[in-house]
Q: What sequence folds into this?
């Protein structure tokens, strides 16, 4: 199949792969943007992603409807976010450490309840064949775009609009930049941060449902390998800008698609090293964008990781 | 009674109350976490009494189960030290798993090359290789933090994923023993280069070495000026810099030292347990170590009993799975509840009246 295209198969497979792989990155990073803009960091989204993948798959299997699965995954994610938000509202509790604990608990609960759903087959989410104009099956396969990816892009634009022009966006930004200023305006920072974390958790839950219901499209304990964590780093790269998250997610998705793309043309040497590409890219991006002396541009003032 | 704390007897009482607080709150949080887990089991139609009974039986009930528990304790001690030492500087390093894995690969590879040489020479060299790799790996996290301001929590976990990918590449590629078919591994170590059990026991030498490392780490933190400087820097970096403390060297030193302990865990896993480097090195010790360090409130001496307790839970996990028909992830759920309870308890310090004699006189 790849003979007629030669090496062109690699970039085509990577574009298609980038779109497929990027969707969970996009949802988790949008959720994290919302949370971090309110001045808190939720490192537990990796656990939320895995739990969302499990609940989405389980509910889709039990009800026969993939969209019900996505909805319940979002609900479950918002519960995780809510718990994180409420705990962090207490004085002297470390939000980074709570995130690590929620990562452990979310993964543990997902594996615990997910045992029964490793075998059954749940319905897939639908995709839209945008590659119909091309006669090449590779191009058609690459442009078979899932509906959730398009929803994610709309969501990113909506978030950007919300932060820029709406009252609620302004409120979140004020709370994120200065607790004192927010209090002076009569806002209640803890309540707003908790709500933002819960909403962010819902996005991460949807990202998880995408993993189990579309690509790779089944539930197992190895379904996420740090995508939730990479998405947190991606937010720093995207400078807390929802629209930049789209490009960052596509870039990370492309890095994640490198291994499978090379494998599809028969390159299997250094298989594990290519699979490490997204982690290396994330680390490289973190190193390039961080600075020991100055605060990062665009960073919310109350955010603990940038102080 | 507002002058209560200023009298001499009051000071001693306050100090005693602070000590009691430092023990009682974590212990209470542990019990609350276990109780919440018990409630979780009830919702699953399983008996918490039976669960903890099996944990006792398989983890602590007999000489045999103690051996099983203690032989799982060593890597947890090292992994917890890898979290606790950087934590003194306020750094949350959670990627100890990476240093364990790569330390183990270095030990396994060097062990193959040194087959036939005297163990008196080879074993210290292998241990040094594990330590060096671990120190460089986690020290790099510290360096990224200090020189580039990269968040150490995210960087260390990313590097753990990279380390595991690197290990898979090495043991399935360049370092693979062609004879290892089902489980790609480095070539098995010769018997002379294996670390044996303690005399008359099944527990290997990693346990006494691990306990010794905990004691040494406690001395470093609590009894030396280095440890004192680290605590100052952990409290407030700017203040420490104004005081002229070498913050950079402290960060590099403490992260590298933590990493060298994790590398030592890899050394014992390869030489005393596995006999070669393979994917079993990444079996989650590094992650359990995070929980242990937080439960011990980053006190190296407290790490010893906490690590034994969690090793007991892991030792009993097989029996619990068989007898109660629970999935292996049950231990993860338990750890998750305990972890959240211990972090929640941070909010109680200084707020419980029983531990604050200064407030006893007031209404």
A:
């Amino acid at each position: 199949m790849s003979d007629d295209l030669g090496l062109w198969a690699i970039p085509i497979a990577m574009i298609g792969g980038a779109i497929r792989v990027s969707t969970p990155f996009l949802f988790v990073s949008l959720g994290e943007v919302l949370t971090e803009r309110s001045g808190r960091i939720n490192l537990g989204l990796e656990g939320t992603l895995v739990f969302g993948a499990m609940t989405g798959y389980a509910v889709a299997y039990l009800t026969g409807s993939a969209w019900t699965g996505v909805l319940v995954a979002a609900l479950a994610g918002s519960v995780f976010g809510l718990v994180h938000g409420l705990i962090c509202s207490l004085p002297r509790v470390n939000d980074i450490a709570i995130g690590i604990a929620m990562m452990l608990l979310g993964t543990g609960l997902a594996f615990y309840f997910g045992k029964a759903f490793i075998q059954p087959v749940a319905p897939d989410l639908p995709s839209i064949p945008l590659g119909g104009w091309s006669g090449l099956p590779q191009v058609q396969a690459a442009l078979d775009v899932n509906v959730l990816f398009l929803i994610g892009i709309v969501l990113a634009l909506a978030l950007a609009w919300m932060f820029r022009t709406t009252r609620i966006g302004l409120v979140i930004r004020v709370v994120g930049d200065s607790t004192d200023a927010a209090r002076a305006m009569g806002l209640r920072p803890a309540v707003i941060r908790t709500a933002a974390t819960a909403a962010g958790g819902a996005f991460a839950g949807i990202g998880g449902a995408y993993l189990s219901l579309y690509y790779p499209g089944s539930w197992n304990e190895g379904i996420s390998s740090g995508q939730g964590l990479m998405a947190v780093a991606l937010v720093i790269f995207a400078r807390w800008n929802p629209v930049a998250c789209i490009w960052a997610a596509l870039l990370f998705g492309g890095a994640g698609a490198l291994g499978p793309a090379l494998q599809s043309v028969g390159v299997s040497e250094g298989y594990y090293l290519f699979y490490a590409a997204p982690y290396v890219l994330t680390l490289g991006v973190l190193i390039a964008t961080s600075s020991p002396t100055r605060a990062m541009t665009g960073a919310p003032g109350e955010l603990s990781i940038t102080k | 009674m507002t002058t209560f704390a200023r009298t001499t007897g009051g000071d001693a009482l306050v100090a005693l109350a602070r000590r009691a607080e430092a023990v009682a709150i974590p212990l209470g949080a542990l019990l609350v976490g276990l109780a919440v887990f018990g409630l979780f089991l009830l919702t699953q139609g399983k008996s918490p009494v039976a669960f903890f009974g099996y944990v006792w039986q398989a983890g602590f009930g007999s000489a045999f189960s103690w051996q099983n528990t203690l032989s799982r304790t060593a890597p947890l001690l090292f992994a917890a030290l890898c979290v606790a030492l950087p934590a003194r500087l306020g750094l949350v390093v959670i990627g100890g798993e990476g240093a364990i894995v790569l330390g183990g690969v270095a030990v396994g590879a060097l062990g193959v090359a040194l087959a036939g040489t005297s163990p008196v020479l080879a074993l210290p060299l292998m241990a040094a290789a594990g330590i060096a790799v671990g120190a460089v790996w986690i020290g790099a996290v510290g360096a990224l933090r200090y020189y580039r301001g990269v968040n150490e929590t995210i960087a260390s976990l990313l590097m753990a994923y990279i380390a595991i990918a690197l290990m898979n590449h090495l043991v399935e590629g360049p370092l693979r023993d062609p004879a290892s078919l089902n489980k790609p591994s480095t070539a098995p170590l010769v018997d002379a280069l294996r670390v044996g059990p303690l005399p008359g026991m099944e527990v290997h030498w990693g346990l006494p070495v691990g306990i010794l490392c905990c004691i040494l780490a406690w001395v470093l933190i609590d009894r030396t000026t280095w440890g004192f400087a680290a605590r100052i820097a952990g409290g407030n970096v700017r203040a420490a810099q104004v005081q002229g403390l070498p913050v950079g060297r402290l960060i590099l030193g403490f992260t590298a030292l933590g990493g060298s302990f994790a590398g030592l865990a890899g050394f014992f896993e390869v030489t005393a347990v596995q006999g070669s480097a393979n994917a079993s090195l990444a079996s989650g010790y590094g992650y359990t170590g995070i929980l242990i360090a937080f439960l011990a409130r980053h006190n190296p001496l407290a790490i010893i009993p906490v690590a034994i307790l969690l090793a007991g839970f892991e030792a009993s996990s097989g029996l619990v799975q068989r007898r109660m028909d629970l999935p292996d992830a049950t231990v993860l759920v338990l750890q998750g509840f305990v972890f959240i309870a211990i972090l929640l308890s941070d909010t109680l310090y200084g707020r419980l009246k029983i531990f604050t004699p200064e407030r006893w006189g007031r209404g």
